[in-house]
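The instructor's notes for this session suggest beginning with a concrete chain rather than abstract definitions. Hand out the sequence below and ask the class to guess, before any prediction is shown, which regions might be ordered.
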Amino acid sequence: MSENVLYYPKPAPVYPGMYNPIQRKEELLHKLNKKGIRIFKPPVNIIELPDHYRIEMTAPGFKREDFYIKTNGCSLSIEAAKRQSGKTKDERYRFRSFHYDYIKRDIELPDNVDPDFGTAEYKNGVLNIYLYKNSYQAENRPGQIIVY
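After discussion, reveal the predicted structure:
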């Protein structure tokens, strides 16, 4: 019986306690929303430069129009929803390593960032967001960054 425990999708009772199978990396990076759509949380790099911060996020297969970036004080929320393409029903994948329909990432920003004058660009599958530094703390008001 202990041989089959590794293939259980949920924790299986094993003496003296509960056995939790190790999740794959892909299962840790996404979750399902209420409608059953996978929400992927892509990795992010935050780079501090002398006068601004650059935030890099990988998002392959999207278009610049798919992104919605909003700010509220020192928090940044990035969302992207891929529009359905005209794929045929005859497509069968033998191996599918990436498939992102919806991504969402929330980032807490440093206190000295100015979210009102941020810019963003999407190029070659990487989203770059540029936020400039300032000497005062950001106010808690909503804003939006347009992707070029």
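Then share the key points. Residues 74 and 109 are 5 Å apart (CA to CA). Helices lie at 25-29.
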